[in-house]
TrEMBL record:
Gene3D superfamilies assigned to the protein according to its UniProt record, in alphabetical order: Aspartate Aminotransferase, domain 1, Type I PLP-dependent aspartate aminotransferase-like (Major domain)
InterPro entries listed in its UniProt record: DegT/StrS_aminotransferase (IPR000653), PyrdxlP-dep_Trfase (IPR015424), PyrdxlP-dep_Trfase_major (IPR015421), PyrdxlP-dep_Trfase_small (IPR015422)
Organism: Steroidobacter agaridevorans
Higher taxonomy: Bacteria, Pseudomonadati, Pseudomonadota, Gammaproteobacteria, Steroidobacterales
Keywords of this entry: Aminotransferase, Pyridoxal phosphate, Transferase
Name listed for the protein in its UniProt record: Aminotransferase DegT
């Protein structure tokens, strides 16, 4: 069993992928070719944002957004410590200080109730992460940001395709940033990412930063990076977009089935040490389950048990960012963000992709029951 099965997906889209790649090989415009523009238009329409800017990764998109707002030395950006390293890393790489705020224990996303206390005159943005495929509480976060006159940059690397109150992730704040890393809900065959905004001026600046701060050929009014999306990756993504809405439906169905099977399997268990907590999806949200992640009391035992039963698992993420050696300079030791730390010790992700069969899901849940209770 694969943790994420990209081969079955390839078999489904191979005619379209191969044809799209062949077209690029024939026209030879490998950098910012027609497919990149076609994809940007398609993604902007899908998300419901005015502008889409294709980029080299979901890491570079975060940096481009921060640079576009001129965020750097002496500035602070509020974010979650319970995320992939890129979120805090790009804030620091831009020269600013990541100011971590603890998460909501049920959604694992930034807790809006804790944000206001962390705001200072140096706060220049809030960067919530839509972890595991579900948006943070964006209305509450946007309201706080509006009150303080600062932007919200959604790190939607894991939530492309998810909805929040009927709107699509990436279009629920001033800027949305996503990733097309191969294992993401919409994955390329290499690195890729995209930025979304309704703001014309900001879109222009982000587009320039993506290409060395260039506004016309060899003319550079600002600093930028080489942050472009390859035409070949855009071609792959265009082919995959044909099946993406269907895959999102499958993800939602498979996630719900997992929760039902797990809750049934553990219904009679009364000992909290032998229970499993399934994902909480807020009533006004859908999740695309970039990860299907549960909480267990004794993770090491469960990891071992699953491995012994031939079921691959992963941990997203074992060490919150404030406890990473690279952020030791922030001086926030164990106990600084108790919910992130306790969740980080308990979470475990199960195999998840749109082609997971009912039989495989039953096998995963049976292995989980034996591993937790055995
Ligand atoms: C929350 C989050 N932010 C940022 C990234 C970075 O994306 P990429 O791998 O495309 O650089 C990822 C993905 O790995 C992620 O999960």
């Amino acid at each position: 069993m694969d943790f994420i099965d990209l081969k079955t997906q390839y078999r489904r889209v191979q005619d379209s992928v191969n044809a799209r790649i062949r077209t690029v090989l024939e026209h030879g415009q490998y950098i910012l070719g027609a497919e990149t523009v076609e994809l940007e238009n398609k993604l902007a329409e899908y998300v419901g944002a005015k502008h889409c800017i294709g980029a080299s990764s979901g890491t570079d998109t975060l940096l481009i957004a921060l640079m576009a707002y001129g965020i750097g030395q002496g500035d602070e950006v509020i974010t979650s410590p319970f995320t992939f390293i890129a979120t805090g890393e790009m804030i620091a790489l831009a020269g600013a200080k990541p100011v971590y705020v603890d998460i909501d224990a049920r959604t694992y996303n930034l807790d809006p109730k804790l944000i206001e206390k962390a705001i200072t005159p140096r706060t220049k943005a809030i960067m919530p992460v839509s972890l595991y495929g579900q948006c943070a509480d964006m209305d509450a976060i946007n309201a706080i940001a509006r009150k303080h006159g600062i932007p919200v940059i959604e790190d939607a690397a894991q939530s492309f395709g998810a909805t929040y109150k009927g709107k699509r992730s990436c279009a629920v704040s001033e800027v949305g940033s996503t990733s097309f890393f191969p294992s993401k809900p919409l994955g390329a065959y290499g690195d890729g990412g995209a930025l979304f905004t309704d703001d014309d001026a900001l879109a222009k600046v982000m587009r320039e930063i993506r290409v060395h701060g260039q506004d016309r050929r060899y003319h550079h009014p600002r600093l930028g990076i080489n942050g472009r999306l390859d035409t070949l990756q855009a071609a792959v993504l265009l082919a995959k977009m044909e099946i993406f809405p269907d895959e999102v439906e499958a993800r939602i169905r498979i996630g719900a089935r997992y929760s039902q099977l797990i809750n049934e399997a553990f219904a009679k268990e009364t000992d909290p040490a032998r229970k499993v907590v399934t994902p909480y999806i807020a009533p006004d949200c859908t999740s695309v389950y970039a990860q299907y992640t549960v909480e267990v009391a004794d993770r090491a035992k469960v990891e071992q048990g699953m491995k012994a039963r031939g079921v691959p698992t992963a941990v997203h993420y074992p060490v919150p960012l404030h406890l990473q050696p690279v952020f030791a300079n922030l001086g926030q030791g164990v106990g600084s963000f108790p919910i992130s730390e306790s969740v980080g010790n308990r979470v475990i992700s199960l195999p998840m992709h749109p082609y997971l069969t009912e039989a495989h899901q039953a096998q995963v849940v049976a292995a989980l029951k034996e591993s937790v209770q055995g």
